[in-house]
Design goal:
This protein has 164 residues and is an alpha/beta fold. It has six helices and five strands, in the order αβαβαβαβαβα. Helix 2 links the parallel strand 1 and strand 2.
Length: 164
Amino acid sequence: MSQRKESAKESSGRCFLVVVDPTKEMHTALRFACYRAHSTGGYVSLLYVLEPADFQHWMTVGELMRDEARAEAEEHLKQFSEEVNKLTGKMPVLFVREGVRSEELVKVLEEEPSISILVLAAASGPEGPGPLINHLVNKLAGKIRVPITIVPGDLTDEQLRLLT
């Protein structure tokens, strides 16, 4: 077990899990989770899922694509970890998985009893709240063991601070 994970588990606060993805609203979920963690003595966990590449014709190309995706994931997680640390005073627990985002999310929630709350942000556009929220609400809401907090994706920092 990593030292970071051990120190996070020793915390008496709740663990707020945020799924890292390329959407604009993910930043809102991250800030909300950080503000809640800070105000409650909790901490933040980040889940980054490397989705399988569609290009499988040549093994070497597929491996190169996977390596590039992993490097990109590590860079994103480094940036978000710095933001979490700045906002909460604690480094986040990091999870990197490979597979389908919704399936890997469910697995992490099943495997990690320290996770207390899943924090997601809904897109505010006409296309709906987003595929992960749609899937969780329509197919999995009664099957996962933690509450889901869905915040509007277009909230400002000031609005987020007032809520937390």
